[in-house]
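User: Run a structure prediction on this.
Assistant: Running it now.
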Amino acid sequence: MRQDKNKALNLRKQGKSYSEIEKVLGVPKSTLSFWLKDIPLSARAKQRLKQRVFDTSIKALINRNKRQTIIAKEKSDKIIEDSAKTIREINKKELKILGISLYWAEGYKQGVSKKWKCVDFSNSDPVMIKIMMRFFREICEVKEGQFKIQLMLHNNDLKNKSLRFWQKITGIPVTQFMKVSIINSSSSKQKREKRIPYGTIHIRIYNTDLFHKIIGWIEGLKLNTGV
């Protein structure tokens, strides 16, 4: 026992904590506290203990934040999963309202007061583009040969890859794609490439009557939403 006490004294003078000494000697903290309560510590030993407490606190804080992040992620995933289940497959009437709403938000509407009147929907979200292609085909009854697609890119090197991607998404042959437009903006080029790796596309239908019909549907929504 005397040998363990002497080892404990030396370890404590080195700035070891009770927990560290307990691991080395296997002596309970209660015994160590009795043995070492009057042992003076050097400035170096005090600093070591202080640093260890700080490091332990930081580690505990990081672990707690990680646990909270995991819990928050699990909670948000559950909310998303449950709410997604409340949406059933949309029917044709709902597809019409959905398409009109999306065009209202993202489509070209200035043609009402301009000479150039063209149905033009632009976005970079492939799912949204698929929805609008369904809207144009099923609700607007646009013929396949009427579609024109223009691709807007920030990197010309991605041209062929992006053309193949959007051809697959839209189902429109590359022969109906217009000249690719390269947008030069060096300040935001890399950020945009990461955010929209395949660029932005415009679905264009050169049909003045359809343009006015969609604008009319939007006006109908405005009048009948109770606002």
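The chain has a mean pLDDT of 84.
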